Amino acid sequence: MDIQIKPIVTEAATADSEKLNCYTFAVSPSANKYQIKDLIEKMYGVKVVKVNTALYAGKRKQRYTKGGLIKGATAAFKKAYVTVAEGQTIDYYSNI
What we know:
Elements lengths: L4 E3 L3 H10 L1 E6 L5 H12 L3 E9 L3 E6 L2 E6 L3 E8 L12
Antiparallel strand pairs: 1-2, 2-6, 3-6, 4-5
């Protein structure tokens, strides 16, 4: 099983990382907390203390154009809030 993971870099996520030492990632909806923990520890070399997850459902979208009504949907995803050990940080840009 291939788990896709990408960091979420927003103002709220950055504030959480500075105050709470908690980093936010968008992960595959089928991934569980143990898989997320192992992957983060391997990718960034940090000790993960806690992983919280939240499922976000896809939303239906539609818009009117010259050609008529276009319907579609956004993809569902899972958000993982990863808390690392005290004194450790994750540098998102180290493995680009």
